[in-house]
Design a protein that fits this description.
It is a single chain. The chain is an alpha/beta fold. It contains 13 helices and 8 strands. It has one domain: TIM Barrel (Alpha-Beta Barrel), CATH 3.20.20.220. Strands 1-2-3-4-5-6-7-8 form an 8-stranded parallel β-barrel, surrounded by 8 helices. Helix 5 runs parallel beside helix 6 (about 110-125). It is globular. The chain binds flavin-adenine dinucleotide. The site of flavin-adenine dinucleotide has 25 residues, from strand 4, strand 5, strand 7 and helix 12.
Length: about 300
């Protein structure tokens, strides 16, 4: 019941001001966000790298300002250089929201985002790693996939996120199931209309399994981004049925969610990657985590009060 209002609030500047000014928000956000700066986030990355893989997200989205988009590119370049220096190029990649690097800028937004995405992919390649483009609301999918196609011409390991709740996704999985392709399959975190998306949880789960089947049958590299125990079990069964070894696909979860399960999968010899966000533009990301599980609000508020 709270999902829709929380997702609407995620895009409201008034709500943002209120939430950011609430004294206990910082402590609640720190469960999901590894730090306000790269320096604050890196210790968590080093700790996770002992048994897991990582993808780092410099938080930000819906940028309407060219200098902010350029600043985001610089932040990723600095991050990638730091990962290279720390010898983490084989453990950590980066995740990028194209709206943070200019996709929605009025004049030539898509062209600017493409150039900026290329610059980040170049910096990733220099330290032996790669980039995955996050997927935002459904209006951005065509543009994001078009940019992906162009970037992959020079950086073929660049990956994309597909959202199982979108009705188009099974077909998109088919298009992106070829050799060299990397697809992170998630359920989807935005409030989408019935016309383009399944809205019933059971329908979304069924769509997730259909999309996963396509990816596991294909020649690409499936990235199973879900905390759902059923999806995780089904992914393991499908991988085995298609003769995929532990290095031929991976599991992915968000920082701060089901840490015990992450450790368990890694200890079983599975590839487990954690999505680690950092930065001070945490509002939209944080609100989507609350919308996925509104009990987070009550649980965390209670734990803070009784500390
Ligand atoms: P659910 O059925 O929602 O959850 C299953 C179980 O996981 C829950 O019962 C609960 O135990 C646990 N859980 C799930 N969410 C939470 C939470 N917030 N807090 C605490 N426990 C929780 N979405 C996009 O739209 N675009 C993206 O680019 C994108 N990238 C992602 C990258 C990664 C690596 C992951 C893991 C998710 C990403 N998502 C993205 C979010 C995704 O779409 C879902 O909203 C989110 O993962 C919840 O779906 P679920 O598969 O875990 O299943």
């Amino acid at each position: 019941m709270l999902r829709k209002p929380l997702l609407l609030a995620a895009r409201s500047t008034t709500c943002r001001t209120i939430v950011e000014r609430t004294p206990m928000t910082r402590a609640m956000v720190s469960r999901f966000v590894a730090g306000a700066t790269m320096e604050e986030a890196l210790p968590a990355v080093h700790e996770l790298a002992k048994d897991r893989y990582i993808t780092l997200d410099f938080l930000g989205e819906d940028t309407t300002d060219l200098s902010q988009a350029t600043g985001t590119v610089t932040a990723y370049q600095e991050l990638l250089a730091a990962l290279g220096e720390a010898g983490l190029g084989d453990r950590a990649e980066v995740s990028v929201k194209l709206s943070a690097v200019g996709q929605f800028l009025n004049a030539d937004g898509e062209k600017i985002a493409l150039e900026n995405a290329r610059r980040i992919a170049e910096a990733a390649k220099a330290v032996g790693t790669t980039v995955t483009f996050d997927m935002e609301d459904h209006t951005t999918v065509d543009s994001t996939l078009a940019i992906l196609r162009e970037v992959r011409e020079d950086f073929p390991s660049t990956g994309a996120v597909l959202q199982a709740y979108l009705r188009r996704t099974e077909a998109d999985c088919r298009d992106l199931s070829g050799e060299g392709s990397r697809v992170r399959l998630c359920k989807g975190a935005y409030d989408e209309p019935e016309s383009v998306a399944f809205r019933d949880k059971h329908e979304v789960d069924k769509a997730y399994v259909r999309a996963l089947k396509v990816l596991m049958e294909g020649d690409g590299y499936p990235m199973v981004a879900s905390h759902d125990p059923r999806m995780i079990a089904i992914a393991g069964e499908l991988a085995a049925a298609h003769g995929r070894g532990a290095d031929d696909y991976e599991y992915q979860m968000l920082y701060g969610i089901r840490d015990g399960e992450q450790v368990r999968l890694a200890a079983e010899g599975k590839r487990m990657r954690v999505y680690v966000p950092y930065g001070d533009e945490w509002y939209g990301y944080y609100m989507r985590r609350l919308a996925e599980r509104p009990a987070n609000m009550l649980f965390l508020a209670r734990s803070l009060v009784t500390r």
